[in-house]
Design brief:
The complex is a heterodimer of chains A (601) and B (257). Chain A is an alpha/beta fold and 601 residues long. Chain A is built from 24 helices and 20 strands. In chain A, 53% of the residues are buried. A six-stranded mixed β-sheet of chain A has the order 6-7-8-3-9-10, with helices on both faces. Chain A has a six-stranded mixed β-sheet with strand order 16-17-18-13-19-20. With 257 residues, chain B is mainly alpha-helical. The chains are: A alpha/beta (601), B mainly alpha (257). Chains A and B meet through helix 3, helix 4, helix 5, strand 16 and helix 15 of A and helix 7 and helix 9 of B.
């Protein structure tokens, strides 16, 4: 696959307007059997590049197209997406809009019917493709009823069955729960290993890219600004952060050591980090498989406390949907005012069902929910909106007003405040969230990150004591995520109670003070973040795992020799590696403290 | 939610294997007969026959019960209102003030109600036993352009999705203190505006992505389209279709000769 000096501009939004240039001279060569990852900030042109690879751009949308894209000898200028689809399989980010058939089988068959294959050949390929993505036995199921991870895998199967030479995947695991991510990535890995497929994958998650890709290119403002192996690329931590991109935690750690200690570490996996750091301690070696030694951990059975200062109190809450199964089965919870609680668990474990009870969108089938000491029964959603702000996952489900100002004023106005008060709150929200320049812009045309900010500002303008955030960082790049979480932390320090539903364990580790793990509608664990992430066996039960840095800290603790442990335990002050670090910075501090201890003793 | 717009129940029976075109022919024939013969016994016998077909076609009783639950209100309404508004005959059964209920009008009401039920069930035989893909396939075979068939299939497929978006959006706006469906008619219609705007914007985005997804799967790539499952007339079809033809001819002779 060859991309040569590619320039592309979308046609203007309004007649007579300026065309919108997105790609500004992209050069790229992908070898057969190579696994290439494309990373870049939102709005950098990654999706646009994907769309040019099978000719959707410019054939379907027009626009200005210069340079050339050649895949398997076919130039997209001469061949439209219909023909290119034989060579390039494109899997879009949103599974909902690319699964348009009534059954799984028909879904896979659609592309094959377009190719004009015989029914027997189709039968063979459908069976094969569903086998590869591990969905056999679901042929008669409606795609609509599949889980998020299954939908993504089905989307892969639909193009896989067409036997393309290149598979292009646009953020294949974004928005999935950890189990779903693993399932999808395992399928891509299998394709690479067994089918020697050429894969081009757009992905924001640096950990996944490190684990799977042969080569990484960074795309920023329509240009490729950096390329190389994951090791080469992720050693450029400062540049990547400058572009607003994440790096794997191990690379961030290596960078921290190199910058502050003048070392020259270049590890990017947990194994490498463990060996390198244990080697530094001289007496220690990094042997033994992970978790082979059971390190005693404090038992954390947190009794549910029923204090009066609680922001949200949930007592034996059960919920059954009208036509569905039991979604919550006896949840007890007490969130204290000012807490930062993260709720984690797989899709379908009841996270969203639980938090929708906090503002009355759902009502208990059994049990009760108290918000700021008052039973939610008898309070309308509108009344609860004064106390509980709820940020929905997709900002577009909320945005409708002609200007950002109007969007922010909507909530306070609904609560019946005077126009003066509405204006005051709106102005303040605009200032606080840095949206003053956008006050008169229609929110719908803003970029995704800004739309997210508008919705948070709109909820904040209602000044709720409690803020529920339902997977707020999905679709945001690293910088967008940081900015959002910093704002949320800021609100938390002003006394707002934060309840965050998320699949991102790094965010949980860094920001949340307490964690609730839900599993099939039941509380699996509830306690302070630090202790909870030590319960690996428990987390595994819910198909969750602590972030890499915590896993590394635990493992390092395990490889320390008894004499070192003895020294740690008898030392005063900072006592070295406790094995429960939640952030890269914390790990660094503890490790260096440990080394000082080693040198001192 | 997912089942609300799909009546089909997957079973293996002669009725399910029947070509959708044969079942369409059945619906047309039934409608012609039912619209021309209003006799109580015709409708009753027809309904009985249809239940026999549904039973032998392994359509679950729960589906049939579901259908009747939906039909009861209209059945009762007709049964109740017909004698009041169309009094005929002289055999008075009951007289309340100026309302006279006669035997004839009661029977007439009953036969009309049963006729409506019978018509509905003729359609339900088709919908209970034919998945939407095959139904659309049948329509295309009968001459509907493939693009139209695809459009119809996609519209059916996305109804639950749009309903889901509608639910989420209305929840999102309620969470911001917006009250839906209160007040007078104008206020009520106005209260749906913020929701409709967000739903339409989301639907447009969906449609945009859908057109790209179709292209990416080789839609209109120039190759002649083939089909995974070609519709073929089976033995049951070869029995049913001549039977339908004969019935139609007999009907035409009796009616117009």
């Amino acid at each position: 696959m060859i991309v040569e000096n590619l320039h592309y501009a979308y046609p203007p939004l309004t007649p007579g307007g300026e065309p919108l240039p997105v790609l500004k001279g992209v050069n790229l060569r992908v070898r057969r059997g190579e696994f290439l990852a494309i990373m870049g900030p939102t709005g950098g042109g990654k999706t646009t590049l994907c769309l040019t690879l099978n000719g959707i751009l410019p054939h379907l949308m027009g626009g200005t197209f210069e340079g050339r894209v050649v895949v398997a000898g076919m130039d997209t200028r001469d061949h439209g997406p219909g023909e290119m689809s034989h060579k390039v399989g494109l899997v879009f980010q949103d599974p909902e809009s690319q699964l348009f058939n009534m059954t799984v089988e028909d879904e896979v068959a659609f592309g094959l019917e377009s190719l004009g294959l015989s029914p027997s050949e189709m039968e063979e390929r459908i069976a094969w493709a569903l086998e590869v993505v591990r969905l056999p036995g679901l042929r008669k199921r409606s795609p609509f009823q599949l889980s998020g991870g299954q939908k993504k895998r089905l989307a892969i199967a639909t193009v896989l069955a067409m036997r393309p030479q290149v598979l292009v995947l646009d953020e294949p695991v974004t928005g999935l729960d950890p189990l779903g991510r693993h399932e999808v990535l395992a399928v891509i890995e299998k394709l690479k290993r067994e089918e020697e497929a050429t894969v081009v994958m757009v992905e924001q998650d640096a950990e996944a890219v490190t684990a799977w890709a042969d080569r990484v290119v960074i795309m920023e403002r329509g240009r490729l600004v950096l390329e190389g192996s994951p090791r080469q690329v992720f050693s450029q931590v400062e540049s990547l952060h400058g572009w607003g991109l994440a790096v794997p935690q191990m690379s961030a750690l290596a960078h921290l050591f190199n910058r502050r200690q003048g070392t020259s570490f270049h590890f990017i996996t947990e194994d490498e980090a463990c060996s390198a750091l244990a080697g530094e301690l001289q007496s220690e070696t990094c042997t033994g498989p992970r978790g082979s030694i059971q390190y005693p951990i404090p038992n954390i059975q947190y009794p549910v406390s029923f204090e009066h200062s609680s922001a949200v109190k949930v007592e034996d809450l059960w919920h059954r949907y009208d036509d569905g199964p039991l979604a919550l089965a006896g949840v007890n919870l007490s969130v204290e005012a000012g807490d930062f609680l993260a709720i984690i668990g797989q899709n379908g474990s009841g996270k969203t069902t639980l938090v929708k009870h906090f503002n009355g969108l759902l009502r208990p089938t059994r049990g009760r929910v108290l918000v700021l000491g008052q039973d939610t029964a008898g309070q309308s959603v509108g009344q609860l909106a004064r106390k509980v702000g709820y940020l929905f996952q997709n900002p577009d489900h909320q945005i409708f007003a002609p200007t950002v100002w109007e969007e922010l004023a909507f909530g306070p106005r609904n609560l019946g405040f005077s126009e003066g008060e509405v204006a005051a709150r709106t102005t303040e929200a605009l200032a606080l969230f840095g949206l003053r320049d956008q006050a008169d812009t229609p929110p719908a045309i803003l970029g995704y990150g800004l739309r997210r900010h508008v919705t948070l500002a709109a909820v904040w303008a209602m000044r709720p004591q409690i803020l529920v955030l339902d997977e707020p960082t999905v679709g945001l790049d690293w910088r967008g995520t940081r900015t959002l979480m910093e704002e949320v932390t800021n609100l938390n320090s002003q006394g707002h109670t934060i309840i965050l539903v998320t699949h991102d364990m790094k965010l949980v580790a860094e920001f949340a003070s307490k964690v609730l793990v839900l599993d099939e509608g039941r509380t699996l664990a509830y306690g302070p973040t630090r202790q909870l992430f030590q319960q690996e066996a428990l987390l595994r039960q819910a198909f969750l795992a602590p972030p890499p840095i915590t896993a590394l800290a635990r493992r390092m603790r395990l490889v320390l020799s008894p004499s070192t442990l003895l020294r740690i335990n008898s030392a005063e002050g900072p006592y070295g590696l406790r094995g429960d670090s939640l952030t890269v910075e914390e790990f660094y501090q503890e490790y260096t403290a440990l080394r000082r201890l080693g040198q001192g003793g | 939610m997912s089942l609300a717009f799909d009546l089909y129940v997957d079973r293996s029976s002669w009725l399910h294997r029947l070509d959708p075109r044969t079942k369409l022919a059945f619906v047309v024939l039934s409608s012609i007969l039912l619209l021309n013969y209003s006799h109580l016994l015709v409708s009753a016998a027809f309904l009985l026959g249809i239940h026999g077909i549904l039973w032998s076609g392994k359509v679950p009783a729960s589906r049939v019960r579901w259908a009747w639950q939906r039909m009861w209100p209209i059945t009762f309404l007709i049964l109740f209102l017909w004698p009041i508004f169309y009094p005929q005959g002289n055999e008075v059964l009951l007289q309340l003030w100026r309302v006279r209920i006669t035997t004839q009008s009661l029977l007439q009401g009953l036969s009309t109600a049963l006729r409506v039920d019978a018509l509905a069930f003729a359609f339900l035989v088709l919908l209970f036993s034919t998945d939407q893909a095959r139904l659309v396939r049948g329509l295309v075979k009968l001459g509907l352009p493939y693009e139209w068939g695809l459009t119809l299939a996609i519209a059916l497929r996305y109804l639950p999705t749009l309903y889901g978006i509608y639910t989420t959006v209305s929840e999102a706006q309620q969470a911001r203190g917006w009250v839906i469906g209160k007040g007078n008619l104008v206020q009520r219609i106005k209260s749906y505006l913020p929701i409709l705007v967000a739903v339409i914007v989301t639907a447009l985005r969906l449609a945009d992505n859908l057109s790209m997804a179709l292209a990416a799967r080789g839609f209109q790539s120039g190759a002649k389209r083939t089909y995974l499952r070609e519709l073929k007339l089976g033995l049951a079809d070869k029995v049913c279709l001549p039977l339908f033809a004969v019935s139609l001819i007999v009907f035409l002779i009796v009616r117009f000769a």
